[in-house]
Specification:
Elements: H1 7-10, E1 15-21, H2 28-39, E2 45-50, H3 65-75, E3 82-85, H4 87-91, H5 97-107, E4 112-118, H6 119-122, H7 131-137, E5 138-143, E6 159-165, E7 171-177, H8 186-194, H9 205-214
Parallel strand pairs: 1-2, 1-4, 2-3, 4-5, 5-7
Antiparallel strand pairs: 6-7
Helix pairs in contact: 3-9, 5-7
Bound molecules: adenosine-5'-triphosphate (ATP).
Amino acid sequence: MTRERDPLNDMTPKTVAVVGGTFDPVHSGHVELARQLRDRYNFDLVVLVVAHDPWMKATRALASPGDRLEMVRLATVSDRAVVVSDVDIRRGGVTYSGDTVSDLALIYPEAELSFVVGSDLEGELTSWERTDELFSRAGIVVVNRPGTPLPRGGSGAPRTGPPLTSPGGVEAKMTYLTIDGLEVSSTQIRDLLSRGVPVGELVPDLVVGYIARNKLYGVS
Ligand code: ATP
């Protein structure tokens, strides 16, 4: 049997958007973010990277890395230009975004990497660990989240901003993108699930099924 050539699989991505996250659990806001990075802002590839042990969320118990990875895989299974990466899980230990982009730079050596964060995280970026590695290997793309609009009030076309400087003196190229976002967070989803409230469209169906089968987040 012959297979048709798949142009996407033959392509070496030149622009890669990296969305690191805990994805505890992945929700439709993450999926929509990935779709718009690809379809509206034309990144060749969007990589969702599931953190092993995110240093920022050390205060509460998380679903296992394997469960979080599988849920992201299920959420993106129909999107060929969105892939899930386990580089942080395979490295193990505490996850730092500087290590994430260093690993991805080895996997996509010809690509320009952009590390994507929601506008809720922009203000704390320079206090992150290992920002020298992060800023030297990737540009930073800030997307609006409902409730935390872009500081420049951006709409439509990408905007650049003044570079952010890491404590070690490395400057990050800053770009601001407007996403027609969904007002949803993993915190909200965990809360709804633990109270037995249906999450409806806020979580992809395959992920809802996985959560139910594996009794995650207090679902009985
Ligand atoms: P939590 O509520 O547990 O803090 P979260 O919903 O922020 O989780 P993360 O896995 O921490 O989810 O998010 C990964 C990345 O996706 C972050 O950069 C975050 O800002 C961004 N993000 C999360 N939800 C949305 C959304 N609804 N719209 C746009 N970006 C989002």
